[in-house]
Specification:
The chain has 63 residues and is an all-alpha fold. Helices cover 62% and strands 0% of the residues. The chain is elongated. Pfam families: Phage_TAC_6.
Length: 63
């Protein structure tokens, strides 16, 4: 098993995202990975219309 890349994680969280240290250290590795994906474009497939409709039904804008 590879060691967690703490140096890279800190450079990204503190340097790229400009998180305050306390916010960075409260993040889980999964949250940091999600932020990484948002920045570098690893977002997966785009949301399909059926999924968008379902999400809009579950989370309406407050009509």
């Amino acid at each position: 098993m590879k060691a967690f890349p703490w140096t890279d994680a800190m450079r990204f969280g503190l340097g790229v995202l400009r998180l305050p240290p306390d916010a960075f250290w409260r993040m889980t590795p999964r949250e940091l990975a999600a932020a990484w994906g948002a920045v570098v474009g690893d977002r997966g497939a785009p949301l399909g219309r059926a999924d968008l409709d379902q999400m809009m039904e579950r989370f309406p804008d407050g009509r």
